[in-house]
């Protein structure tokens, strides 16, 4: 499985958010590394996906605080996308916690979901706030 690479077109032009997005990619890549293992210990998978989920929530909170402070008009739809991600990750975590779960298969599914979700989210939903953030002087 190919690692996700940060490229300039993913930039939203807000330093803090770009740095968080890049770190998110790095965390997804850590899970991709695990897909190369023959056996993925459930505990290892749980640590990685819990860390990834916690970081996503931290990042979402950062964005949502900007939205609230600057009264971003599309905040509701953007926040809903965040909640959908969180619900999906909660399901992954619950599944990984089950005894006998197929951790190898789950590792691949989680790696694909997290990286592709982030790329699509940045290229679609996040692009919508770039002009707004820059108009507010956020860089």
Structural features, described:
This protein is mostly helical. The protein has helices spanning about 15-35, 40-70, 75-95, 105-135. The longest helix has about 35 residues, at about 105-135. About 25% of the residues are buried. The mean pLDDT is about 90.
> What overall geometry do the principal axes of the alpha carbons give?
elongated
Helix/strand/pairing class, anyone? mainly alpha
Order of helices and strands: HHHH
Question: How many H/I helical runs?
Answer: 4
| Low-pLDDT residue spans | none
Largest sheet: none
Mean pLDDT: 92
Strand-residue fraction? Answer: under 5%
Quick summary of this structure?
The protein is mainly alpha-helical and 139 residues long. The protein is built from four helices and no strands.
Per-chain topology:
Blueprint (H helix, E strand, L loop, with lengths): L14 H20 L7 H29 L4 H23 L5 H33 L4
Helix pairs in contact: 1-2, 1-4, 2-3, 2-4, 3-4
Looking at this protein, list some descriptive labels.
4 helices, mainly alpha, elongated
């Amino acid at each position: 499985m190919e690692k996700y690479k940060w490229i300039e077109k993913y930039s939203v032009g807000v330093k803090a958010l770009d740095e968080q997005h890049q770190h998110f990619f790095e965390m997804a890549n850590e899970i991709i590394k695990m897909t190369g293992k023959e056996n993925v210990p459930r505990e290892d998978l749980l640590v990685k996906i819990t860390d990834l989920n916690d970081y996503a929530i931290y990042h979402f909170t950062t964005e949502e605080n900007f939205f609230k402070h600057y009264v971003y008009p599309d905040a509701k739809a953007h926040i809903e996308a965040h909640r959908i991600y969180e619900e999906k990750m909660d399901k992954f975590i619950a599944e990984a916690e089950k005894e006998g779960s197929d951790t190898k298969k789950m590792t691949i599914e989680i790696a694909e979901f997290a990286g592709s979700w982030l790329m699509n989210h940045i290229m679609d939903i996040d692009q919508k706030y770039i002009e707004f953030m820059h108009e507010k002087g956020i860089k």
